[in-house]
Design brief:
This protein is α/β, with parallel strands linked by helices. It has two domains: 2-320, TIM Barrel; 332-451, Golgi alpha-mannosidase II (Immunoglobulin-like, Sandwich). The chain is built from 13 helices and 21 strands. It has an eight-stranded parallel beta sheet with strand order 10-9-8-7-3-2-1-13. Helix 6 crosses helix 7, helix 9 (235-248) runs parallel beside helix 10 (284-296) and helix 10 (284-296) runs parallel beside helix 12 (321-328). The chain is elongated and about 75 Å long. Keywords: Glycosidase, Hydrolase. This is Glycoside hydrolase family 27 protein. InterPro entries: Aldolase_TIM, GH, Glyco_hydro_27, Glyco_hydro_b. It comes from Bifidobacterium favimelis.
């Protein structure tokens, strides 16, 4: 759970802006589980601009072709100090520090034919000019069959470890899927961790068309992997994640996470790749839907809005303790119902929306922390239509056959009420009872059910 600069600042974030977001996270969100700050792409490009990338950019590199922070945007990085001073400040706030990097080796390092640290080889000898990113011009790939290719990643990640980087988002890895590069980067991290006694989380991007057949390989080599291309503040983007998270939910396990992408919530687009400066265009109900779906699907939660200038609503939503409780403390998460609803059941022209239900068992956290809902069940009732809709689901499908006649206490996880509001409750009797709620347009009712 953390903050990433991409949705707000694209390629242009500054040290001052990073620290401002870190301070808000420390002051208002750390206690709710948010603990990581990530500087996204192009921190090494002194010509970085909003809405795109620069051909032939004069990247800031060291003598071995490794990227260094632009000292204008990141003044503490001057004199070759890299990100260590900034990482130290983030760590002093009790937070983790992360950065983004592209797959491969900078083209500029290849043009200069710089040496590969600790080897007799040069950049031109390890570069793969046939497998380059189609959307970013900064790098060539690395030819992993070439002597010295692994050493280049080893040296790059070793420098990151010396700076105190805890989290690495490595891009252009999965669309198309570069298994040799992923394994090489994992090996570089493993080497750095053993050398420096640190832990570095590896997050792979992007994730278009990612099949679940790669899951064993991904678990072996990474902690997070994207399962979609970039997501923005459009309902259509959120809607498309339902089916992806349903597909990946059975494969989620603590420490290895399918990632449904950043949360475009709060004040975004200040200098971003997409759209103009704005508060998130999703409605409040759509924002709750997004956060609930990510938590029930156990996706990592990485918010993209500029925290100091986001609306109070955003911080209130992010501060909901149920987010970390469910993401970190649930199991057997699954979409159990997904049905089209027509006004006339026989006429698809009268389609109104999809009724979608997720459920999960409450569980202890991996660190042994007890659940707030021992023996409880989490349930999320989603409605994708344009008007509010009454959703009902048999209680036995949520709590299990034979448990539906138990007296269950409902807690609305968004409203925080201990007793159910008037539009949420039970209907029927015994094993035939149903959980019912009026769900707003594009909205969700999210509850915990606890046996009394």
């Amino acid at each position: 759970m953390g903050w990433n600069s991409w949705d707000s600042y694209g390629t242009t974030v500054t040290e001052e802006e990073v620290l401002a977001n870190a301070q808000v996270m420390h002051d208002t969100l750390l206690q709710a589980g948010w603990d990581t700050v990530v500087v996204d792409i192009a921190w090494y490009d002194p010509t970085a601009r909003a809405h795109g990338y620069n051909e032939n950019a004069p990247l800031v590199l060291d003598g071995y072709g490794r990227q260094l922070p632009d000292p204008v945007r990141f003044p503490s990085a001057k004199d070759g100090l890299g990100f260590k001073p900034l990482a130290d400040k983030i760590h002093d706030l009790g937070l983790n520090f992360g950065i983004h990097v592209m797959r491969g080796i900078p083209r500029l390092a290849v043009e200069r034919d710089l040496p590969v640290f600790g080897t007799p080889f040069t950049a031109s000898q390890v570069a793969d000019r046939d497998h380059v990113c189609v959307w970013n011009p900064d790098n060539y790939g690395l030819d992993q069959s070439a002597p010295g290719a692994q050493a280049w990643y080893d040296a790059q990640v070793d420098q990151f470890a010396q700076w105190g980087v805890d989290y690495l988002k490595v891009d252009d890895m999965q669309t198309p899927f570069h298994a040799d590069e992923i394994a090489a980067y994992h090996n570089a991290i493993d080497r750095a961790e053993r050398t420096h006694g640190c832990e570095i989380t590896l997050s792979l991007s992007p994730g278009g068309w990612l099949p679940t057949t790669h899951v064993d390989f991904l678990r072996k080599n990474a902690q997070l992997w994207r399962i979609s291309d970039d997501l923005w503040d459009r309902w259509t983007d959120v809607y498309q994640q339902f089916v992806r998270l349903a597909r990946w939910a059975p494969f989620q396990e603590t420490g290895h996470w399918a990632d449904a992408d950043m949360l475009p919530l709060g004040h975004i687009g200040l200098r971003a790749e997409r759209g103009e400066d704005r508060q998130c265009l999703l409605s409040a109900d759509e924002q709750r839907t997004l956060l609930t779906l990510w938590a029930m699907g156990r996706s990592p939660l990485m918010v993209g809005g500029d925290l100091p200038t986001s609306e109070a609503l955003t911080l209130d939503l992010l501060g909901n303790p149920a987010l970390v409780q469910v993401t970190a403390g649930s199991c057997s998460n699954a979409e159990i119902v997904r049905e089209r609803v027509n006004a006339d059941w026989a006429d698809d022209e009268t389609y109104q929306g999809d009724q979608i239900v997720w459920r999960a068992d409450a569980a202890d956290w991996a660190d042994g922390t007890g659940s707030d809902h021992p023996e409880g069940v989490y349930a999320a009732l989603f409605w994708t239509g344009e008007q509010a809709h009454k959703v009902s689901v048999p209680l036995k499908s949520l709590v299990g056959i034979g448990r539906a006649s138990v007296d269950w206490e409902l807690t609305d996880l968004w409203e925080g009420r201990e007793s159910a509001p008037s539009d949420l409750g039970m209907e029927g009797a015994g094993e035939d009872r149903e959980l019912v709620a009026t769900v707003p347009a594009h909205g969700v009712v999210w509850v915990a059910l606890d046996p009394r």
